[in-house]
Structures are given as C-alpha cells and as structure tokens.
Write the structure tokens for this entry.
Amino acid sequence: MISGELFIDLLLGIGALVTAILCLTAKDLFQAILLFISMGLLVTLAWVRLGAWDVAIAEAAIGAGLTGALLIATRRQLNQ
Amino acid sequence: MFNNMTLSDSAKQEADLPGCVLLIVGMVVVAACFFLAMSLVQFQPTDQPLVTLVASNLEQSGVENPVTAVLLNFRSYDTLLEVAVLLIVALAVMPFSLQDTRLPFIKVSEPIERSLVLEAFLRWLLPAIVVTSGYLLWTGAALPGGAFQAGALLAGAGILLLLAGHHSFNFNALAARLLLVVGLAMFLLVGAGVVLSSGIALAYPVAMAGTLILVIEVAATITIAAVLVLLFCALQIEPLGPQPNRVEKEKHL
C-alpha cells in the first residue's frame, strides 16, 4: 500500500515528466506553450513538496507566469 | 520571414544528422543521467555542511531567512552579477529610437478594443498584486520571498496593465532608464560604500546589514519588474527586434 504523500509526489514527478515530453513533441506551438505553463505549475508544486518555498514562488511567478506570457507574445510575432 | 527560416533550417539540420551522432549523443545523455541519479542515491540528508554553516552564521547576516541571507549577504557578489545580467538583457531588447527620450514614461490612450471584464477585474487585482509584491519583499527577510519574487509579481501586474490596453510604456524615457539601472546602481553603491566601514566590498557591517539588504532589495525589485515588463513590451511593439535570437536560443536549448 503506497502512502498518500508518496502517491502525490509520484504523481507530481511523473506529471512533470509527461507534460515536458508532450510539450517537446507537440506539433502546435500554442499547445506546446500551454503544456510548458502546465509543466511550470506542476514543478512549482514539486518545489513546494520539497519544502523550497522561495524557489516555488519564483517558479510560479517567472517560470509559469511571465515566461508563458512572453512565449505567447513571441508566437503572435511569429504568426504575423 | 527570417524567423521561419531559422526554424526550418535547424529542423532540416536535425533530420540530416547521421545515426551514429544521435547514438553518441544519446549515450552521453544517458550516462550523465545515470551519474546524476547515482549521486542522488548516495547523497545522504546528513551530509549538508552548507546548511549548518549558514544556520550558524545567520545572526551576522541581518536577516532571518537563510535563502535571503545567502543571496544578499554571504554570496551577494553572485546576486550583483545577476542584476547586472538583467541590465544587459534590458540593453539588448531596448527599443532603439532616440526620439522618444523626451516623451513621458507612461502614455494613456484609448484602446483599440476594450475588454470590459479585464478592466473591471484589474481594478481589483492590480492593487492586490502591488500590495502582495510589497509583502513578499518585506517578508523576504524572515520568510520565503524576496526581491526576485516581488519583482516578478510586479512585472505581472505591469503586463496585465499593458494587456488592458489603456496604458503603454515608453522605455526610452528618462524615468524608465532610471528604473532599469536603479537596482544595479544601488547594489554597487552599497557594496562600495561598506568598504569605508568594513574594508571589504559587499561585506556589510553587522549592525546595519538588515537595513542595507532591504535597501538593495527594494531597488532590485524595481529593476527586475522594469526589465521583465520591458521584455514583454519589446515583444509586443517591435515587429522584428530581438526575436530571431530568442528563437535560435530556444532551438539550441
């Protein structure tokens, strides 16, 4: 019987890996960006589970939030 | 377009790589992963000399959060260089027209398409973000938080403001340039100023360390927020500016 905490940790780790692979293999750029943002959020939760709150806040704000906005703006430029 | 050309060129190169090269690269990556996993397995939670070292010197740092103590006191040289790197990034993406220097930093105009939901939402959200950012900055001395997190949040507020369409920023204005350099300038000033009392650059006197760190962090927060908003602005306004490099870098990563 797997304990609850280990289950959550495994889910976060595998989820981050799966979203990373999906992000790299996605054909559509917009899909890839959204997957990248989701991976950022999963990694944020992983940092929280590791007790690294400083890194978690930075990852949530920069990794998931700002980079996502920058990538979407870049995509818009590419489409023009 | 140049962007598409870069993308398709590197895609072609990827396809042309011979199988043995791919095999060698794959083996190197697998070996690196294996050694990393092995070191992770052998790493005991008890062999962390740095944790005890930081904990025993925390009183001298002027702050209670060990992460902030390392970032802004024990290894402040690294953080100084990080802020300098941000300034270089800002210089690389600055809009290059010199005519806008005399125009004001913030321009208010009627947006092309109004989003009423976003506007109404931002009326509530923006003050909350600014207050949260200030809280993160202040609490960084004792709890998780600090200049980078606060700056990133503030930049998020700036980007949301841009998306609402009523305001636009002119980063050639004098005020904007001041915002972009104040972090590094304050860091250098404090770092050089403490030479007078302690004799070593960036070695803060223990009694004033907390205040000096807070001063540096406030300035760094402003600069980080300004640089991140500038990045977004550069992508929004310029049709062909810094993106070719960005795309290339992403592809090579």
About this structure: Chain B has eleven helices and two strands. The beta strands of chain B are 106-108, 167-169.
